[in-house]
Amino acid sequence: MKICNNDELKLFEDTLEQCEHSVLVLTPEGDQYDLKNPMEKYLGIASLIGDEDPELFASDSNDEMKLFNYLEKIA
Predict the structure, then answer these.
(1) Which of 3, 9, 10, 12 is most buried, by the most CB atoms less than 10 A from its CB?
(2) Sheet with 55-58, side-by-side order of all strands
(3) CA dist., res. 70 & res. 60, Å (int)
(4) Helices in 5-60 by DSSP H: which ranges?
């Protein structure tokens, strides 16, 4: 998943605020960031903006649905 512009970033941050459990970003290099952890959030978001193609995982099915809704909005 990639974030391509400011509107997508704002919508993603709003979606992330609604999530109640861990949302993980896994980079191709093997780095892992929990976007619900304030110490890791911005590193994880930076990887979603950069040239990498990281994967996003939710630890809760309700949070997963919120992320799917986000993806539908930006498609």
Answers:
(1) 12
(2) 32-34, 23-26, 55-58
(3) 15
(4) 6-18, 38-49
Judge contact between 18 and 66, C-beta under 8 A: yes
Angstrom distance (rounded) from CA 12 to CA 4: 11
- Residue 15 has a pLDDT of 97
- CA–CA distances in Å: residue 43 to residues 29, 34, 64, 69, 75: 14, 9, 20, 23, 24
The confidence score (pLDDT) of residue 41 equals 96
**Residue written as token pair 């093997």:** 30
CA torsion sign for 19, 22, 27, 28 is negative
